[in-house]
Amino acid sequence: SKAKLFDQNTDVKVSFKDVAGLEGAKEEVQEIVDFLKNPEKYTALGGKIPKGALLVGPPGTGKTLLAKAVAGEAKVPFFSLSGSDFVEMFVGVGASRVRDLFKQAKEKSPSIIFIDEIDAIGRARGKSNFSGSNDERENTLNQLLTEMDGFGTNTNVIVLAATNRADVLDKALMRAGRFDRQIFVDLPDIRERKEIFEVHLRPLKKAKNLDTDFLSKQTPGFSGADIANVCNEAALIAARNGKKAVDKQDFLDAVDRIIGGLEKKNKIIT
Length: 270
Ligand code: ATP
What we know:
The protein has a six-stranded mixed beta sheet with strand order 1-3-4-5-2-6, sandwiched between helices. By secondary structure, the protein is α/β, with parallel strands linked by helices. The chain is built from eleven helices and six strands. It is globular, with a radius of gyration of 20 Å. In the N-terminal section; belongs to the AAA ATPase family. In the central section; belongs to the AAA ATPase family. It is found in: Cell membrane; Membrane.
């Protein structure tokens, strides 16, 4: 396969101001930013810098965005891969892919490794609904555990992983010295939705009648990703109608469209 083994971004532009709401989660990852910027400050006192943290929460709530923002704030390279890619693209090379990823991240340390959808490789052993061979998945998981145990406290690589199914993860992943911190990234409440709207309205040409209090009231249950979609969809609807600015009606139409899409998605799942 010619597919990339993992992604590497040495100049991440995302910062905490791109992440709306999530005050608690941002506070927790701020500590990781400090570790990455000033490891000596912590190790000098004999402390052990954490190796990993698990970002737990529903789809589209900003877990990937938050992980990127950690790299952006600390100005360190961001190495990432998605657990689901293992299933689809890399049969037979999962373990070596993990090995290469950690090797690169160590060479470029301080750095962040981000593993999205870690449940695809980190499901409790023997309880998998993995479509490929179970041995393959276990080899990959074992390699990940080996790598995390292998690097010392002065390696300055922090591994962030995201999941919306922490309950299915192999307990071995959560042991001390691995992903021993969990950071919850929940769906936004009304106040947080307003903040997310403010972020995603920034690039749009807005009509005067736009009111973010109103928009956040219209979107209960929406994730940050849903809100980003609404904003983009509203801009496309306005353009299609030949408008010079995106107005309230365009947003209402976009909300309807996204709700329609969400309902369809839920029907497929149930
Ligand atoms: P998944 O579990 O589906 O991978 P995720 O939790 O990693 O989702 P992201 O990929 O980070 O979610 O979010 C997708 C997009 O939604 C982001 O790139 C951003 O545009 C928007 N978004 C989500 N949450 C927020 C937020 N808190 N603030 C601003 N934008 C957000």
